[in-house]
């Protein structure tokens, strides 16, 4: 598998151990240093869950937005050696990370956004209307 720097994946549920193991394998094989997971369907996330899915030791930093019932849920993971998060904004439908990216010869302030929007037209419109207000 080609090496990736950023990975974004709609998992459609991380409640089963097999799914966590599959995510761990993909993150590990991809070599991604920043990972965005959508539709985790997890109402809470702790360090144990992160270790089960990250494929890395405990040095990955992370933040999550809980699911609402059986819908949504976001996890953003990053390697602090390549991204230093200074500000984070968490919402039901997105996680925004603002910080300094330092990778090889690239160094700059970056804004990274992990987004989950429902598929229904009216629900999706409501989410994007919220983005415009923020």
From TrEMBL:
Recorded coiled-coil stretches: none
Q: Which UniProt keywords apply?
A: Hydrolase, Magnesium, Metal-binding
Q: Which cofactor does it need?
A: Mg(2+)
MF terms from GO for this chain are:
DNA-(apurinic or apyrimidinic site) endonuclease activity; double-stranded DNA 3'-5' DNA exonuclease activity; metal ion binding; phosphoric diester hydrolase activity
Enumerate the InterPro entries for this protein.
AP_endonuc_1, Endo/exonu/phosph_ase_sf
GO cellular component terms, semicolon-separated: nucleus
Q: Name one GO biological process term.
A: base-excision repair
SUPFAM superfamilies (UniProt xref): DNase I-like
Look up the domain of life of the source.
Eukaryota
Q: What is this protein called?
A: Endonuclease/exonuclease/phosphatase domain-containing protein
Species, as recorded: Hibiscus trionum
**Lineage in the entry?**
Eukaryota, Viridiplantae, Streptophyta, Embryophyta, Tracheophyta
């Amino acid at each position: 598998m080609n090496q990736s720097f950023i990975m974004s994946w709609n998992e459609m549920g991380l409640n089963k151990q097999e799914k966590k193991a599959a995510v761990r394998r993909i993150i590990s094989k991809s070599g991604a240093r920043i990972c965005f997971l959508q539709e985790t369907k997890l109402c809470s996330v702790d360090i144990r869950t992160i270790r089960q899915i990250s494929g890395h030791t405990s040095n990955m930093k992370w933040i999550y937005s809980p699911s609402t019932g059986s819908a949504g849920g976001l996890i953003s993971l990053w390697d602090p050696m390549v991204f230093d998060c200074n500000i984070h904004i968490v919402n039901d439908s997105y996680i925004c990370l603002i910080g300094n990216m330092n990778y090889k010869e690239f160094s700059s302030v970056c804004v990274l956004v992990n987004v989950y929007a429902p598929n229904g037209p009216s629900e999706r419109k409501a989410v994007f209307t919220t983005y415009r207000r923020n």
